[in-house]
Each structure stands twice: as structure tokens, then as C-alpha cells.
Design a protein that fits this description.
The complex is a heterodimer.
Chain A (H helix, E strand, L loop, with lengths): L7 H7 L1 H18 L5 H28 L12 H28 L4 H19 L3 H19 L6 H32 L4 H9 L4 H18 L7 H8 L2 H26 L5 H23 L4 H22 L2 H28 L15 H4 L1 H15 L7 H15 L5 H27 L14 H19 L2 H14 L5
Chain B lengths: L13 H19 L1 H8 L1 H7 L4 H30 L7 E11 L2 E9 L1 H24 L6 H20 L3 H19 L6 H32 L4 H7 L8 H17 L8 H4 L5 H10 L4 H8 L1 H5 L2 H22 L5 H21 L3 H35 L16 H4 L1 H15 L5 H17 L3 H4 L1 E2 L2 E2 H31 L18 H16 L16 H18 L7 H25 L16 H7 L4 H52 L4 H22 L1
Antiparallel strand pairs in B: 1-2, 3-4
Classes of the chains: A mainly alpha, B mainly alpha.
């Protein structure tokens, strides 16, 4: 191993963005517990969180600019990591902004969730950087433990508590598989370093190594909510507070996919049949089942949960390509998906739940008549998730580049591409259902108008719409950056 | 380095941007509804103050200001271009790559050249005048901000159309003006008739757009580019007169015929008169409908080596010109007369560009923009005034556009009366007005081409080109006669004789406010002076052939190819041609003056003729009905019985909708069964799934 690995100064610098986020979270925690939560304090909390994210973004830019991209060791310093950090930080930022408006209305304190979101973000960024299975595990756990608590942050609401308990129990269960997989891989190869695992497996994996890889994949599949490891998702997204569900659906997914791509491209040979076969089946099942399950849903948070499952399937197609182009497609897709999903959850947060705590599609009936702006924005998000050209903006290109990567891979994923297209057609039924309800159903006479949309939520929605539409017309710069980052981070042949 | 680099030509991006910003700003104002709400809260103020209402000031500043500013930019760019040498070539500004996909590269690029800037000046100049006119015309309409945002949107797309540096960018503008036109035709959408007219325009135009798209695909497949400069360079690769280039040109012309309302796709334009009158003036007379002529002229290099396609353009143009002029003879709606007149004049322009006289066609396009905009705005002023008259006496039933209910307006609206007569004489072709010069040039060019040019030696469906062109000349002469007749008829019925306005409304009819009269006066001046743009050598009243010389770098090559071998006309012949044209115009005016007696106008409810030519004419030759019976009805029948009931419901639904629907419902049902909400079930499923994954992987190993 070359010098930087052992060099604590190098490691500290490589971890700088993660340290800034975690440090900011700690300071915010102190500030949050200092006194009772008032409107002024909430403003201070949001400001602190924004400053933390801004500082972390600067730290990311600084580290990315000063460290060599090709450093070896447990922490990646390549462009792929920095891109992932940007998506994670963006998701965190938008979540915090929506949360700031949501908390006072839902009557829960903002301090704890804000700190927890930042802590989770720290874990995600570590996960995006991990080139060692131990760090992968650490990152996943940092992210997950914070997430379990976040799901139950609305303490007075039994549904929220149920979501947290389920998430925790099943999460702990799947962590067992992940850890067992890591242990088996270590046993088979004598290392936890991804690159060296890759070298050791190049000759053909033993039974023990194959089992290890399988359990590792199971751990990832649980976190990204791939079928059949998705069962927790609808219950948790439904019970958790709306902005938290948005966070789970985007940032958590982005970080986990980043790590999965890295594991796939660094540790697994493209010709490793068992892994490819398992990823293929996961992708196919997830696309088919995720979309099929969503059709019958009229509970919008559950519908979006199934939508997030379906999108995990689409992303797994790109993983299955086993190419840098696939990795680039994933990063592009994650950004597009994160904007549309957080936007959709922000709209739901603005519309608010019914008294029974359920966000039924009926809540959106005739929204066009009372809140045309919200309805238009939601339509854009739904079309983006559907992957509709132009009106769905960036969402169309996200799917387009995944398809392109799948069909241009050395082993073209023709069957998966066909499933992807068919599944997308199926998904129109529930995305367009939402649009139909908003625009073509009359507003029920007894429905109260939604409260005015708070400023931060409005800002999040507007930003998401603009970015989606602008890059939907002109995606070239983003694609170019994503492709360059993936190509430089995963040079062919390794 | 291009000589225009660093000059005002670099500002060309501002041209479309300004109206676009106007569209966004006024669109926002209109959506916000605050303006509307505050206005409707004080309806009396709206009535008395009109567009001087304080809430409208901002709308005016944005709506009119953006187009006036764009006109300023156009003048600056034009001046820079005029200062550049003749050989400078088009100045293309690329703002980014739009569609980099495989080998296809389409850039967002604008092209500053002599043709595009002439068009840009017309669009922004005439556009600005019509915007100003609209301030008065639309003053008491509650949709005021929406109107201006649509109008600005139109100008934005029209500028994209004329400035685009490739067929693809033009197509964006092409579709965009179609959208703006649809929105404005159906501006008063609460009446089904108006909304239907908008839909008709949109759908008929789709037929043309299909042609445009096919032409682009053919160009792309064979030349690998859609960029004008590259197409022009690579034209020699296409076999001259070959099937491919003929097909490309014919499909391009199909697109042009849709947008420019040529046979048989003209049927949407008369219906489009349902929109506000300034819209008819701007979109359906001066600018958008000339897009097809522009497209053919822009593709001059292609049409030059496709004589069969060029002759097709001549034939369709000539047939349209006379056909529409005949229908225009018997219309009673003042705007419908002008609409058929526009169709007919566009036909003349197509005869010109089809016969290779590109400059003559574009010259007529320019002068037509002046005098037809003047006629439409004048008609708008009349309608506006009558409308107010009816409103004042609470007459809700009388039609303000019916010529049978006009008459005697000369005394009430003297300025409008005088200006409309100028425009009428211009369109009839009376010297020395603009229309005389441009129409005479078309006639002379077609006559010259008929005598031995390369085009005259080609054959069209077995007919020699000389015969086609000669017939076209004759048809155009008759059309010129008819033009003078129907326009004089319009003037005679509207302004002369005793008033036929029902009730006391006539007493309330008055000249329109200055904000409406001003643009009329400016257009009147242009109508008088526009001919100086391209004086013939025969009448050297100033610099000769300015436009000819100016456009030579763009259309000169194509024109030279088609005109090769045509002998120059002798001085005597030219004089004779001018004499014939003027005689025809004066004869038309005289005939109409004698025949159309204002005291012999039938009552509006008089039964239409039920036989003979009058019957055919009053039913517009049953073209709409024929299209309905021959194309629409069979299409509907086939699509309903065969495609929908048979294939869609019978085959496709069963195989691809109900089948997979049942399947997905089944999967969904299984999913909900699994989704019991019980952690125990979940753990059990996960455990089974883990075993499945491990089993699969170990088996595959």
C-alpha cells in the first residue's frame, strides 16, 4: 500500500466533508437543547443546518479540488464520490427546508429531526466514499440508526411509532445478513478492501465467497427496497412524517446505490455469473412488482413508496450493466429522481394529511381549482417520475440514459430494457391517476382549502420544478459531468 | 472571422428573448388574476377608462414595449448587416447543442442573413404596430393580459421561425406559431364555435407538419444535416431533378401549404377569423401565413434542382389564387372577404417562388404585409366602432362584421375610410402604390419564365413547363381582376351609399381613438411607399431593384438555375405587360363600382341562392363539405368500426390491456396479501427470499 493510507492527515482531509456535516450536527444538537423551541429558535436551527450544508458543500469542493482523484486506500477520493455527495447534500438540504415548515404544523420539535437528518447525511457521505466493507457497514449503520429514530420522530402518533419499530426490527435483521456476508467474504479472501476482494475473486469465487456476496447483496437489496426485500417500505413511508419519507426515498436510496455501484464495479468481475444473475432477477422482480403493487394504491404516501421501489428496479438495471456508463446513468437518475420525489413529498406535506393521518388521493381532488400552482408542480413531478418527455423534464432523460447504458453494455440487457419500458407504461396508470384527480375531478364541496403553502416548502417545490424542466430541455451539461465522473472513477479493466 | 463579429449582429439573441420575457411577465400577471380581479371589482371604471385603466399600464408597457424594443434590436442588427460586404455570407450564432444524439447534431443557432433580417423587420415592425392597435381594440376585454402574453408568445415563436439556422430550429418556431395561433383563434374560448375554429386550424396544420417532418427526415437521412449552410453546400450531392430532391421539396411544400393556407389545406384560414381582428392582421395575414413562402424561398437551392416540385408549387399557387378570389366575391362577412383575399394573395406569392422568381414572391410578401395588415386593422376599426354602436343601443343580435349591415361609414370614419381605400387600390394593383410594383413584378417574372427558361423546358405530368407557366400567368391576370372586384365591392358596401346599420346604432359609430388610428396611418404610409423597395428598371423613380440586389446572396443561385435560358423581355413587351396589369386593375374597380350598388344589397336574412353558380359560390364550392365527406367521415368510420371496435377493443385490448391488466391486478393482489403489516410475515418472506438468492447464486456458480 502506498503512503497516503497510513497517513492520518490524508485520511482526515479525505473525510473533511463528512466531518463538517457531523460536527455541524453536534453543534446544532447543543443549540437545540439549550432552550424551549420557539419560532425564532426554529429559524436559527434551519439557518444552522443550512450553514452546515453550505460548509459541507464547500468542504466537498475544496477536498475534491485539492486531493488527487486516484488515491488508494479505504476512502475513495474520485469524482464519483463527490457527485454522490452533491446529490446527498441536495436531498438533505431540500428535506430540511420542508421539515422546517412541517414540524410546527405537525407539532413536533424540529431540533431532533434536523440533527438526525444531518447525522444520517454524514453516514451517507461515508457510505459514498467507502472502498472497504467495514466502512460500508459503518456508513450504512450510521445512516440507518438515525433513520430508525427519524421514522418515529412524531412521538405522539402511533403510526409513526409503529413505522419506527418495524423499520428498526427489519433493518436490524437485514444488517445481520450484511455483516454475515462481509464476514464470509473476509473469511474467503482475507481482506475487506474492495479492490483486493476483486483481485481475489478474479480467479473464480469459492462457495464461501459466493455466499458472502449473496448476503452482501441481500443487505443492499433491503436498503434500496428491492423486491422481495421491500416489505417494510410502504409501512414505514406511510407511518413516518411526510418529509422524512421523502428523505428515505431519496437520500438513503442515493447513498446506498452509490455504494452498491462501487462494490459492483470494483469488487465484482463483470463475468461473475451468480452475482449478475441475482442482480438481474432483483431488477426484473422489482420493476414488475413495484409498479404492479402501486396501481391499486390510493394512499399517496404508500403509492410513492411503491414508486420508490419501482425506481430502485430501474436503477438496478443500470447496476446490471456493470459499466461506467451505467454508473453515470445511475447518478443522473438519482438526481432526477431525488428532485421529483422530494418535490412530490413537499407537495403532500403542503396538502397535509386528513384527520385520520392518512393521505388519501381524495385529498388532491380538484386541487387545480384551489391551488393551481401546487397542482401544476405535482403534475410535473408525477410526469418526471413517469419519465414523460418535456413536461416531465429531466425524468425522461433519466430513463433514456439507463436504457442507453443497458443496450450499449458489452452484454446488452435487452430483456431488462423491455421490462423497463413495459413497467414504465404500467406506471403511467398511477402517476397519471394523480394528475387526473387533481385536474379533472371537481373539488368536493365539503373539502377545506389547504393552508397556504409555507415559504420554504414553496421554495423547494419551485426549485425542483425549475431544475427538472430546465435540464429536461437541456440535459447535456449534466450528462457530460456524470459521464466524465464515472469514466474517471472506474477506468475500464481496473 | 466573420465581418459581423463584434457588431450589433451579436445581439440577435435579444430578438426572440424580449417578446418571450413579455410572454412570461404578462402570462404571470394574467395567471395571478390580481389584475383581472381588481378590474372586475370596478367594472364601471373598465368601461369608461378602457386600457387607460391603471391596472393595464404595466401590461401595456410589457406587451407593447417588448415588441417595440425587439424592433429596435432588429433595426440595429439590420444596420450592421447592411454595413457588411455582399460576400459576407450568413452569420450564424450558436448558443449550444440541443440534440446531440448519435450522428445527429442539432444546435440552438440563429442565422443573421439578408432574408432572415428582412423577415425579422416585418415581424417586429408590423408586429409592434399591431400591438399598439390592440391597446385600443382589446381595451375593454377582461382577458387583456392573457391576450398580450399570447401575442408576445407568437412574436417569440415567429422570430424563432425566421431566425432559425436549421430546419429543426425553424420547426420549433413553426410549431410554436401554430400553438400561438391556436390559442389566439380560440381566444374567446367560451364560445364553442371559436374553440372549434382553433382546433380546425391546429389539426389542418398537422397535415402540413407531417410533410415538413418527412422532408426533414429525408434531408437528414441523405445529407446528414439539417443546417441551412451545410444543406446549401451539399446540394450538388443530390441528383438534379431526381426523385429524392423532388420528394424532399414536395414534402416541404406540403408543410408550406398547410401553414400558408394553400389548396386544399386553406380551409382553416377563413375559420381562423374567429379570433380578435388584430390577431387576424398579424398572424393570419402579415406574418405566420407567409411562413410557407419563406420556407420555399429559404430552400431555394433545393427547389432550383427540382423543377417538377417547383412547377407543382406554381400550379397549386395559381389554382389557390383564383379559387379563393372567386369565393371572396360573394362573402358577406368583412373579415371573411379579407381572409379569402389573403389565401388568394398567398397563392400569387407561391406562383412567384415556384417559378423561381423568389425576390418577386418575397417582395409581394413584404408589401402584402403592409396593405393587408392595414385592411385588417381598418376592418377591425370598423367592427370596433359598430360594436360600440350596438352596445350603446343595447343591440345584442346584430352582427358587426356583416357587410349587409354597414354602408355610409365614409362620413362617420373618414380617416379609416381614406386609408382603406389606399390599401384597396394597392392590393388591386394601381400605381404607384406598393401592391402595384410587387404584383407587376410577379406577373412579369412568370411571363418571362414561360418563355424558354430551364423551368419552362421541364415537364409537369406530361405538360410542358412553358404551358404551365403561361397558364399561370393568365390565371394570375384573372385573379388580379377579381381582386380589384371583391375589394371594391367591400369598400362600396361598407363605406358608400346610405347607412344600413339597424336601429339608432349608426349615431353612435365614431372614428376610433388615436391609439388605433396611429398604426393605420403608419401602415398607410408604408403602403404608399413600399414599392420603392424594388423599383423596376422600367420605372426608375429611385434606386432600381434594391430588394433584388439585397437578396441576391440568398436566393440568387436558385433563381439563376431556374431562369437559365430565359430571354430578357424587350422594353416594349414590359411596357405592354404593365399596361395590361393596370388596365385589368382599373377594369376590376370599374366593374365592381357599377355592379355592386349599395342600394341593391340583400337583407341579411334573405335566402341564399339554391341553384347555379351563386349557389356554389355562397357555399364556398362545398370544399369543406367535400373534405368532410371524402376524408373526415371515412376516417372517422374506419377508425371507429375497424381500428377502435375491431383492432383496439377486439385485439389490442384483449392482448395487451385486459390481459396484462388482469395480470398486474393479480400481482397487486398478491402484493397486498403479503403486505399484512405484521413483522412476523415480513421476516418470514425475507428469510425465504434470502434462501432463494443464496440458492440461485450457488447453483449458478
Amino acid at each position: 500500500m502506498t503512503a497516503p493510507v497510513a497517513d492520518p492527515a490524508f485520511l482526515t482531509r479525505a473525510l473533511l466533508p463528512d466531518l463538517v456535516v457531523s460536527g455541524g450536527a453536534m453543534l446544532l444538537l447543543l443549540y437545540g437543547v439549550w432552550g424551549p423551541e420557539t419560532e425564532g429558535r426554529r429559524r436559527g436551527l434551519l439557518l444552522g443546518a443550512l450553514v452546515t450544508i453550505a460548509a459541507a458543500t464547500c468542504a466537498t469542493a475544496f477536498t475534491a479540488a485539492t486531493l488527487p482523484r486516484t488515491g488508494v486506500g479505504p476512502l475513495a477520493t474520485d469524482a464519483f464520490r463527490w457527485m454522490a455527495d452533491v446529490v446527498i447534500l441536495l436531498g438533505t438540504l431540500l428535506t430540511l427546508m420542508v421539515m422546517r415548515d412541517h414540524a410546527p404544523r405537525a407539532r413536533w420539535a424540529l431540533a431532533e429531526p434536523a440533527v438526525l437528518v444531518l447525522l444520517a447525511a454524514g453516514g451517507m457521505m461515508l457510505l459514498a466514499a467507502a472502498r472497504d466493507l467495514i466502512l460500508v457497514f459503518l456508513g450504512i449503520e450510521l445512516m440507518s440508526v438515525a433513520s430508525y429514530v427519524l421514522a418515529g420522530i412524531d412521538r405522539r402518533n402511533p403510526r409513526s411509532a409503529e413505522a419506527a419499530l418495524k423499520y428498526f426490527l427489519l433493518g436490524a435483521f437485514s444488517t445481520g445478513f450484511l455483516l454475515y456476508g462481509i464476514a464470509l467474504l473476509y473469511g474467503a479472501t482475507g481482506t475487506t478492501d474492495l479492490a483486493r476482494i476483486g483481485q481475489a475473486l478474479a480467479a473464480g469465487p469459492s462457495v464461501m465467497a459466493t455466499a458472502g456476496l449473496g448476503l452482501l447483496l441481500v443487505g443492499f437489496a433491503f436498503k434500496v427496497a428491492a423486491v422481495p426485500f421491500h416489505l417494510w417500505t410502504p409501512d414505514v413511508y406511510d407511518g413516518a412524517p411526510t418529509p422524512v419519507s421523502g428523505f428515505f426515498a431519496t437520500a438513503v436510496k442515493a447513498a446506498t446505490f452509490t455504494a452498491l455501484v462501487r462494490v459492483t464495479l470494483v469488487a465484482v468481475s463483470p463475468t461473475l455469473v451468480p452475482w449478475n444473475e441475482a442482480v438481474w432477477w432483483l431488477a426484473a422482480l422489482t420493476m414488475i412488482a413495484g409498479n404492479a403493487f402501486a396501481i391499486r394504491q390510493r394512499n399517496l404516501k404508500r403509492m410513492l413508496a411503491y414508486s420508490s421501489i419501482a425506481h430502485a428496479g430501474f436503477l438496478l438495471v443500470a447496476v446490471a450493466t456493470h459499466t461506467p456508463a451505467g454508473a453515470a446513468a445511475i447518478q443522473f437518475y438519482l438526481l432526477a429522481y431525488a428532485l421529483a420525489t422530494i418535490g412530490a413529498f413537499a407537495v403532500l406535506s403542503a396538502v397535509g394529511e386528513a384527520a385520520d393521518g392518512i393521505l388519501h388521493a381524495r385529498r388532491l381532488e380538484g386541487l387545480w381549482q384551489v391551488r393551481p400552482g401546487l397542482a401544476m408542480a405535482m403534475a410535473v413531478f408525477m410526469l418526471a417520475l413517469l419519465g414523460f418527455p418535456l413536461a416531465g423534464g429531466i425524468g425522461f432523460f433519466a430513463k433514456w440514459y439507463v436504457l442507453q447504458a443497458a443496450l450499449q453494455a458489452p452484454v446488452p440487457q435487452t430483456a431488462l430494457s423491455i421490462i423497463l419500458v413495459v413497467a414504465t407504461v404500467v406506471s403511467a396508470t398511477f402517476y397519471l391517476y394523480v394528475v387526473m384527480v387533481m385536474f379533472m375531478r371537481p373539488r368536493p364541496a365539503d373539502a377545506e382549502a389547504p393552508a397556504p403553502t409555507p415559504a420554504m416548502t414553496r421554495l423547494v417545490i419551485a426549485t425542483a420544478v425549475v431544475v427538472i424542466l430546465v435540464f429536461g430541455v437541456y440535459p447535456t451539461p449534466l450528462v457530460r459531468v456524470a459521464r466524465a465522473s464515472a469514466a474517471s472513477s472506474f477506468p475500464a479493466g481496473r | 472571422m466573420h465581418p459581423l463579429t463584434g457588431t450589433a449582429a451579436d445581439l440577435v439573441w435579444l430578438l426572440p428573448l424580449l417578446p418571450f420575457l413579455g410572454f412570461v411577465a404578462n402570462g404571470w400577471l394574467s395567471l395571478r388574476g390580481a389584475v383581472r380581479a381588481r378590474v372586475t371589482a370596478h367594472p364601471t371604471r373598465l368601461e369608461t377608462e378602457g386600457s387607460r385603466h391603471p391596472q393595464f399600464t404595466l401590461v401595456n408597457v410589457i406587451g407593447v414595449g417588448s415588441v417595440v424594443a425587439a424592433f429596435g434590436v432588429a433595426i440595429a442588427v439590420f444596420a450592421a448587416l447592411a454595413g457588411a460586404p455582399d460576400a459576407a455570407g450568413p452569420y450564424v450564432q450558436t448558443y449550444g447543442s440541443w440534440l446531440p444524439s448519435g450522428d445527429l447534431r442539432v444546435d440552438w443557432a440563429f442565422q443573421v442573413d439578408r432574408l432572415s433580417m428582412v423577415m425579422a423587420l416585418i415581424v417586429t415592425g408590423v408586429g409592434a404596430l399591431i400591438h399598439v392597435f390592440s391597446v385600443g381594440y382589446m381595451a375593454d376585454d377582461p382577458g387583456y393580459p392573457r391576450y398580450f402574453s399570447y401575442l408576445n408568445l407568437f412574436v417569440f415563436f415567429m422570430l424563432t421561425l425566421v431566425l432559425g439556422a436549421s430546419y429543426a430550429v425553424i420547426f420549433v418556431g413553426w410549431e410554436g406559431v401554430g400553438l400561438a395561433s391556436y390559442l389566439l383563434i380560440g381566444f374567446w374560448f367560451s364560445e364553442t364555435r371559436n374553440a372549434d375554429a382553433g382546433k380546425k386550424a391546429f389539426i389542418v396544420n398537422r397535415v402540413g407538419d407531417f410533410g415538413f417532418l418527412i422532408a426533414m427526415f429525408l434531408l437528414w437521412a441523405n445529407l446528414g444535416t439539417l443546417d441551412f449552410r451545410e444543406v446549401a453546400q451539399r446540394v450538388p450531392e443530390l441528383a438534379a431533378g431526381g426523385g429524392l430532391v423532388t420528394a424532399i421539396c414536395l414534402f416541404l411544400f406540403l408543410g408550406a401549404a398547410g401553414k400558408s393556407a394553400q389548396m386544399p389545406l386553406y380551409i382553416w384560414l377563413p375559420d381562423a377569423m374567429a379570433g380578435p381582428t388584430p390577431v387576424s392582421a398579424l398572424i393570419h395575414a402579415a406574418t405566420m401565413v407567409t411562413g410557407g413562402v419563406y420556407l420555399v424561398a429559404r430552400s431555394a437551392d433545393l427547389f432550383a434542382i427540382a423543377p417538377v416540385a417547383s412547377l407543382t408549387v406554381v400550379v397549386v399557387g395559381a389554382v389557390t389564387a383564383i379559387f379563393a378570389a372567386v369565393i371572396g366575391l360573394k362573402q358577406w362577412d368583412i373579415k371573411k372577404v379579407l381572409a379569402y383575399s389573403t389565401v388568394s394573395q398567398l397563392g400569387m406569392m407561391f406562383v412567384a417562388v415556384g417559378s423561381g422568381a423568389y425576390v418577386a414572391g418575397l417582395f409581394h410578401l413584404v408589401t402584402h404585409a403592409f396593405f393587408k395588415a392595414l385592411l385588417f386593422l381598418g376592418a377591425g376599426a370598423v367592427i370596433h366602432a359598430l360594436h360600440h354602436g350596438y352596445h350603446a343601443v343595447h343591440d345584442e343580435t346584430s352582427d358587426a362584421q356583416d357587410l349587409r349591415l354597414m354602408g355610409g361609414l365614409r362620413r362617420r370614419m373618414p380617416v379609416t375610410f381614406a386609408l382603406m381605400w389606399i390599401a384597396t387600390l394597392a392590393i388591386a394593383g394601381v400605381p404607384p402604390l406598393a401592391g402595384f410594383f410587387s404584383k407587376d413584378e410577379i406577373l412579369a417574372s412568370v411571363f418571362r419564365q414561360a418563355g424558354g427558361s430551364a423551368l419552362a423546358q421541364a415537364t409537369w405530368l406530361g405538360i410542358p413547363g412553358s404551358v404551365v407557366l403561361g397558364t399561370a400567368y393568365a390565371i394570375l391576370l384573372v385573379t388580379a381582376l377579381l381582386t380589384a372586384v371583391y375589394m371594391t365591392r367591400l369598400m362600396r358596401y361598407a363605406f358608400h351609399g346610405p347607412s344600413r346599420v339597424p336601429g339608432d346604432a349608426a349615431a353612435h359609430v365614431a372614428e376610433s381613438p388615436w391609439v388605433m388610428r396611429g398604426p393605420l396611418v403608419v401602415l398607410g404610409a408604408l403602403t404608399v411607399a413600399g414599392g420603392w423597395l424594388n423599383l423596376p428598371a422600367l420605372l426608375p423613380l429611385g434606386p432600381v431593384g434594391t430588394l433584388e440586389h439585397w437578396l441576391a446572396p440568398v436566393t440568387g443561385r436558385g433563381a439563376a438555375v431556374l431562369a437559365a435560358g430565359a430571354p430578357a423581355l424587350g422594353h416594349g413587351t414590359e411596357q405592354a405587360l404593365v399596361g395590361v396589369a393596370v388596365a385589368v386593375a382599373l377594369a376590376g374597380i370599374a366593374i365592381a363600382w357599377v355592379v355592386c350598388r349599395p342600394d341593391a344589397v340583400p337583407a341579411p336574412d334573405a335566402p341564399a341562392p339554391t341553384s347555379g353558380f351563386g349557389w356554389l359560390l355562397s357555399n364556398k364550392f362545398f370544399v369543406d363539405e367535400a373534405i368532410e365527406a371524402l376524408i373526415v367521415a371515412p376516417l372517422v368510420k374506419v377508425s371507429r368500426l375497424v381500428l377502435w371496435r375491431g383492432i383496439d377493443l377486439g385485439v389490442l385490448d384483449a392482448l395487451f390491456v385486459r390481459g396484462p391488466g388482469a395480470l398486474t391486478r393479480g400481482i397487486g393482489w398478491a402484493g397486498t396479501r403479503l403486505q399484512s403489516g405484521l413483522v412476523g410475515t415480513y421476516v418470514w418472506v425475507i428469510a425465504i427470499a434470502v434462501l432463494a438468492v443464496l440458492g440461485l447464486m450457488l447453483l449458478m456458480k
